[in-house]
Amino acid sequence: MRDVIIVGGGPAGLNAALILGRCRRTVLLCDAGRPRNAATPRTWGIFTRDGIPPAELRACAEADLRRYPTVERRAIEVTGAARTDQGFTVELADGTRERARRLIVATGLHQDLPEIEGFAEFWGTGVHSCPYCDGYEARDQPLVALGHGPAAKGFALELTLWSRDVTLCTDGRPAELSDEDRDRLARHGVRVDERPVRALRGTAGEPSHLELADGTHLACRAVFLMPAGCRPSDLLAGLGCDLTDTGVVPTNDYERTNVPGLYVAGDASRRVQFAVVAAAEGAMAAFAVNTELLREDTR
């Protein structure tokens, strides 16, 4: 039996493995190889690595892990997990089972895109979920906030940090904004367009405009999707882990969940979804796991 199994090889899982390897814990890191940011050309906001391609960042982290002989990496999907008296048992895609005293789930979230032509094509290059991550590269160009409801006001106003040419587009839904909300948006130059969207068009991997259902065009260099519910790993529900209405895990101190011995780090937990934050959460989970195991071992 290992000390820890980590599910997910993104920033959270890799950093958790690094910290635990330095604690000489026996670790199995399993990664299915389907990162959420696979289509993103660059990862921004990580000091000393600002703008590094995601695959290169992972390769650097994996090279670091090779220094630690107690850490094993496998490129394989974890298809099931169960809590036992001794800890956890996980089932892998090849049918084998592995056991560990603690489990860290760092699988992130699955991003569902609107079913609008062109959104999948430009995902990561012109369709984004986080203006902090990708707003700077589209600065001073036409930006679209896609969403509706009271929270859309704040999201659209946030985009004015990067451009003064911002449109809140509801894709045919009522904006659900009060007159006061509309006045505030107008004062800051944010337009509201409630017409349905037919497609996102562009060339050479870069969007140029939204094509609306009435045949008109709306200039658009980047679309930012308003935060919405995402799908976490099925492992979490199967283990009895609490989830919020938006599909994330309400982790407690040091990424603990309501399930004893289970930790969730990265985008599937409650904090902002930055790569550098995910890595920090992985480190916190590793610290907590090591502390728990040490207490058990030194009773």
Give a quick set of tags describing it.
FAD/NAD(P)-binding domain; 2 domains; flavoprotein; Ferredoxin-NADP_redctase_2; FAD/NAD-bd_sf; 5-stranded parallel sheet; alpha/beta; oxidoreductase; 299 residues; 7-stranded mixed sheet; 25% helix; FAD/NAD-binding_dom
The averaged pLDDT comes out at 93
Q: How much helicity do the residues have?
A: 25-40%
Determine the structural class based on helices, strands and strand pairing. Answer: alpha/beta
SSE succession? EHEHEEEEEHEHEHEEEEEHEH
What percent of residues are in strands?
A: 15-25%
| Biggest pleated sheet | 7 strands, mixed
Helical stretch tally? 7
The CATH class of the largest domain: Alpha Beta
User: How many distinct folded domains?
Assistant: 2
User: Based on the structure given, which CATH architecture of the largest domain is correct?
Assistant: 3-Layer(bba) Sandwich
* Cα gyration radius (Å): 21 Å
CATH level-4 homologous superfamily of the largest domain: FAD/NAD(P)-binding domain
Shape: elongated
Keywords: Flavoprotein, Oxidoreductase
Protein name: Thioredoxin reductase
InterPro entries: FAD/NAD-bd_sf, FAD/NAD-binding_dom, Ferredoxin-NADP_redctase_2
Organism: Methylobacterium radiodurans
Describe this structure in words.
By secondary structure, the protein is α/β, with parallel strands linked by helices. The protein folds into 2 domains: 2-111 and 229-297, FAD/NAD(P)-binding domain (3-Layer(bba) Sandwich), CATH 3.50.50.60; 127-225, FAD/NAD(P)-binding domain (3-Layer(bba) Sandwich), CATH 3.50.50. It is built from 7 helices and 15 strands. Strands 1, 2, 3, 4, 5, 6 and 15 form a 7-stranded mixed β-sheet that branches. Helix 5 (179-187) links the parallel strand 9 (166-169) and strand 10. The two termini are 19 Å apart. This is Thioredoxin reductase. Residues 3-282 form the FAD/NAD(P)-binding domain. It comes from Methylobacterium radiodurans. One of its GO terms (molecular function) is oxidoreductase activity. Keywords: Flavoprotein, Oxidoreductase.
